[in-house]
Design goal:
The complex is a heterodimer of chains A (about 400) and B (about 1150).
Chain A: H1 2-11, H2 14-32, H3 40-57, H4 61-80, H5 87-104, H6 108-114, H7 120-148, H8 154-158, H9 165-190, H10 215-220, H11 226-247, H12 263-287, H13 314-322, H14 331-334, H15 336-346, H16 348-354, H17 358-364, H18 366-392, E1 399-400, E2 405-406
Antiparallel strand pairs in A: 1-2
Chain B: H1 5-8, H2 39-65, H3 68-94, H4 97-116, H5 118-161, H6 167-219, H7 221-233, H8 238-243, E1 260-268, E2 273-278, H9 295-311, H10 316-334, E3 352-353, E4 359-360, H11 361-364, H12 367-370, H13 389-396, H14 429-432, H15 454-466, H16 468-471, H17 492-495, H18 498-506, H19 508-511, H20 524-527, H21 533-557, H22 572-582, E5 593-595, E6 602-604, H23 623-626, H24 629-637, H25 639-642, H26 655-667, H27 671-674, H28 683-694, H29 700-708, H30 712-727, H31 729-732, E7 766-768, E8 774-776, H32 781-790, H33 816-828, H34 844-858, E9 866-867, E10 870-871, H35 891-894, H36 897-905, H37 927-940, H38 956-968, H39 1003-1006, H40 1011-1017, H41 1019-1022, E11 1034-1035, E12 1040-1041, H42 1045-1048, H43 1055-1061, H44 1069-1076, H45 1079-1093
Parallel strand pairs in B: 3-4
Antiparallel strand pairs in B: 1-2, 5-6, 7-8, 9-10, 11-12
The chains are: A mainly alpha (about 400), B mainly alpha (about 1150).
Chain lengths: ~400, ~1150
Amino acid sequence: MTFIKDFINVLSAASISFVLLSSVFAFIVYFNLFDGKLKSKIGGGFIGFGALLIVAGLFIKPLLYLGITYFLIMFVLAHLGGRLWDHKTGLWMLILGGGFFALSMLDGNFYLIAAKPDNVPIAAMIFLLGFFTWVALRKAYLNDRQMLAGGIPWEKTESDEKLFTWPDLVYTEMLCMIILTIVMIIWSVALRAPLEEAANPTSSPNPAKAPWYFLGLQEMLVYFDPWLAGVVLPTLIIVGLMAIPYIDTNPRGNGYYSFRERKWELGIFLYGFLVLWSFLIITGTFLRGPNWNFFGPYEYWDPNKLVPLVNVDLSEIIWVKMLGMPLPKLWVIREMFGIIFVLGYLGLPPLLAIGPFRRFYQKMGPPRYYVGTFLFLFMMSLPIKMVLRWLFNLKYIVHIQEIFFNV
Amino acid sequence: MRTGEAWTGEARTGEAPVLHKDGPNSVKPQEPIPHNYPMPRLNAIFAWSALGLLFATGLMVAYDYVRGWKWFQVEFLRIQQQRIEAELTAAQAAANKDQLKALDEQIDQQTMAIAAHRNQYLIAQKELDRQEGRHYAADEDYRFAKAVLDAKRYEAEAANLQKASDRAAKQREFEAMTKRVNDLQLILQQVTRDRDAAKERVNQWLKKIDDAEAKKKDLNAQIDLLTKQLETVDLKRPNNLLLNLPMLDFISPTLKIDQVVLPDLFVDVNYMHIPRVDRCQTCHRAIDRPGFESKKEAARLSAELQKKLDTYQIAAEKRKDTEARIAQLKRIQDAPEDILNPWRTHPRLDLFVGSASKHPLLEFGCTSCHHGQDRATEFGRAGHVPPNPKMEHRWKGTWNVAHRQWGWEENEFNESPMFPRQYYEAGCIKCHSNQVQVNTETDRRTAPGKVAGDDVTKAMQTVELYGCYACHKISTWRFTDLRKPGPDLTGIAEKTTPEWAVRWISEPHDFRSTTRMPSFFYQRNMIGPYVPAGEKAQNIRNQNAEIHAIVAYLFAKSTHRVWQAPPSAGDAARGKALVESVGCLACHVQSEQIKDEKTGEIRLARRDDYPLERNYGFNFTGVGTKTHPAWIYNWIRNPKAYYSEAPMPSLRLTDQEASDITAYLMSLQKPQFMMKRVDAADPKAVHDLAKGYLLNTMSDVDAEAKLKSMSMNDQLVYLGQRSIEKYGCYSCHNIQGFEGLKPIGTELTIEGSKALHLFDFGFVHKYQHESGKTEEVQHNVPSWIYNKVRSPRVYDDQRAKGYNDKLKMPNFHLSEEEARLITMVVAGMTKDMVASNRVAAMDARNRLIEEGRKRVSQHNCRACHIVDGSGRAIAALISDTNFLPPDLTPEGGRAQSPFLFNFLKDPTTMKIRPWLSVRMPTFHFDDQETNALVAYFANEAKAPMFDTTRVANPPAQNIAIGREVFTMLRCSQCHSTAPVNPENPPVPDIANAQSLAPNLTLARVRLRHEWIPDWIRRPGEMIPSTRMPANFPHDNETGGFKSPLAGAIDTPAFATQKAALLPYFHNDEKELRRTMSDAVALTDYLRDYIWSIGIKEMRPAGEGGVTVTPLPSMPAAPAPKTGALEKAPRPVGAGKALPVGVGQAPPPVPGFRPTK
């Protein structure tokens, strides 16, 4: 039992769970969703990635856990294949997940955090999220299968029919309203509102957490400066969401569920929403403890836990560690590599347009393509920075304290 | 397969909707449109969900209605109801049924009589009705006219002032109205007379009935009252039931939250201070109501009240009330079950919570003392803190819901949780921190056992005596301006040897089990159970090196004065007798062996085997091993010569006495202590430790070079300096080279308010204390402090710290009780704000008193004397109260300030009790300190600081009468009136202890004029242990005093005196007898006599208490009586306030009723 708990504690470390989730996500979406068969070329990449993890794990123990788990999941998923989206398997996985969660409640430390009245809705959110994602993808899967067989999506068969507002719409809405009210009342009776004593500015709670829906942002603060994580990225999220209808002009999938016809659109959205947003909220809620330290789900939130702060800037890595030189005094020279890196990253869209993204460039046209890629690159800057942090303890790529500009 | 088929398949076969068939504008659909969902099913869902919503709403209302505090209130009402019903039954049983029956008969008879003369009665009644009507009208006319008159007056006045044209008319109107009012008044008077006459006629018939009814009401008063009370407490009565219904209970429920707003006591909500709003009595219903005490408290209280009744003179009505209260308390003691919290009455209602107490509920509430969340109404949220782990487990309950009766959980966000039970008195500190003695008002002589406030007073004394303030800054008045608690070390080399010092520092408790010097070395975090073996050996080497280094430093910096050896050898046996008799043992203890009271075995003594006062000086054990004769001799002769701030006073020992005592003290050896093996300092450890310090400021190479240039001794001295700095030795001791350094410990001024998360609990939940007891560390501040002081290094358990990073607080080896007291003080020092009008002892008088009390505590006066009703630790050694130093409780009212000043500065100026072998030492007080003490005594007794009564000259007649009374009361049996030298009066016959009393010729320069008669009347009340007999017993009926001479003057034994006295009363025997039965007059005459024989001057003390040439002035014997036969005037002084004529009753003395 202890071994299982330790194993899960290690796995849930942000570095491991994030990488695992990202890679398994790709696997689920691109292979399992449709037919469960590995395409040789990309499939080889997935196996290669797993092997890399195992080899690295010989030196870095957590990566070994990661590699083993990764292969296990891949094996199970490959075996399940399309059955993940049939009635039983998907629901069973959700039920098993819920059961596992319930079983974990027997652990004192887990219970303490999961049963906190403020955290209960977020625990519920995990399952709701899982359920709705499954429902949507299942429908897409069924439609896709039907369409491959030459049929039409199920929604299309319905769209010609007419229905009355009353009772078909309003009646059901009213029922929803009543039932939700019941749920809310019972909930508020059963769980005490987590009110605390008067706030004390000289003694802030440890950990001091944002409201749950901002925990994703707060998690970003671990990797980015406030001006990026708190201003630029949230602004881009909002702007990006607003821009979606103008960028995504793919007419297919309109009015019906389909994955095959919108692979990239849905993939990017789901990755951004599930992994980069929801997962960070869950991490921030359940796995971030005192001093914003990371705690596995079965670990005790010890406020005295100490984690060494040994992050370094890119300039230090290059100048001091690689070139064996002191840091240049002039910041332009000192941060030269970082600036080149950042500019290079932002300059990727034209290169990509002739490279791997050629298809998109041709399909979308330059304005849409550049806006879309720009947004995509910004989104991907988060996982990139996270991985860089975990691999190289990288603090800042560009660190110009002279003008308070850090990336 | 199509998804969603399961949902729709059935629906589509459902009925088509009925549309408007005939409407002109109705658009008929092309085809029947099927519903997406089957309607019957939706209807069913709707029905069920509607029921569900109803249920949820009911749940919401119920949840809102059922509050934890309501249960407590209902339960309390049930308790009350039970009591009232029992009392009602008793009252009904006790009702005088015969009398009630007789009254009923009387009413019946009169009713019959009225019926018999029905016509007459009706006529009279009718007439009365008519007259009432007339009276009403006349009265109204008159009152209205008066109102108009006032308006007319204003109009006339205003018109006159404004010189209006119609002012004459207005004036006339006013006058007319005046006349009319007068007329109406006359009419009203006439009508009233008529009405009264009519009423009288009716009353002839009704009077008997009314009287009987009134009597019945009187007889039933108790029952009626109880019945009414029952109505309010019985929840099943329709009225109560209705008011408390859910949803209706917003109007005026009988179950409701009770609160008291306290504008002077603040809650810090961080942005501002807001008044406290205490809601505790919502559940603690009986907190301010007497009658719900616990059995224990009831027993204590009834014993106390009974003692008060027996001891004091109490007026009759008050006596009756007290007796009723005692009866009530007896009933509580006899009740089958004890009342439990929260329905109990607060203990000591006379001090706390009670409306007549010093801390009434409406002004102080609860949380101002107890702490906790003032507005909370739930047990778990109010900040209750379990006093021990057992209680904590009980409160928390288990997973079994049935066991979770309290539902308590730790609330980490509560910034001021309550003080656990054993630290309740910590709550006193925030308002009483500028007092030495918290409770000064309670009469300690009548209250048996511990008195409220004693705990915290003792706790603060403990903190003072043990010197916590030296290392930990405490910026309250109580703990500032105190001397360093440890002895001066700047002359250590003159006193002892390095060999002894090394062993002493290693473990002071090996030398003296009661020492206050704590153990710094070889403690739990150095050699304890969690230290790895290899590290342990290194730690021991390091510690040994540090000890040697500290000693090396101290001896290197010490002065080397040479002390003269005792002139003669001295006799140890005589010395022992002296030590035991002159008073050394008031502050010191002779041996560390003590016989255990429980087991009867001889064991090592602990500090708390003795009162705090006897821990003031060191334990004599092994003092001969520690030092040498020359030092002891000079120290006891003149302690200030060695160390100018030495707290030890001079006992004015002669050379021979000092030599004897030196011989005795040198005989107290502890050779086994010096045989303890001590390794020399390990050079490598010294080197490494010293280098560790050097590395703070220089590089490794430089440090090595520097160390190489130093000899081993230099290294030791350097390390010693660093170690003294590290351990903070200088905080308690004067050490050369550490002058003016800040104390080493954390400041404790607001430690009680420090947030819980700032306390480092380490990894400790449970540990084994050095005494073998397993201690649990609860997660609350008091528990942390308790375990910190009890086992200061325990929070290092299982931690991997560097040698110099380990906790350094030394181990005082505190007992549980000592640790509890110290915890109380530390936890009680909070940052709570209190309005200045709620802070205790803030006025000028009380400041003077507290300054004095602080000095009393500093100089350990209580070791010998009773001050403010407590003290005299020396009483444990002297069984005969005749030979104890005096009780100073009434000293302020007793002694004249000039005398007190003189005596305190130099006690040799007067020997009041020459038979005492205990000596009042010379403390070498300066003028300021002496004045502080004198002001304290005077103010404490509310006596004038400067009184000039010493010059009062009583008239000769009074003296003569006084002398006869003196003879009759046989005062001379004990008191000598022979003139003596006040500095060296003859010692009376000690064998006859019963007759030891001060020489009365010393009274005039010493005692206050007004105090003497008061003292003669009630000596036992002022000083319970006095041998002075109560010649004037209490008269409980009048509350005054009885005179023993009241009847005795006519007995043959006093024939001579009677003959001698009669002339002073104009030979009026009645007057003589009246005076002889007047206690106040007699005691005044006695005083005048005593005043007349007293010396008028005493030798003034020299500067700084130095003896000056004595100039005794012998008292003049009073002139023998000649036949000046005037009527005796009033004694001087007694009649000052009231002019009293000849032959009048003596004036009342405040507080006492004159005997008649």
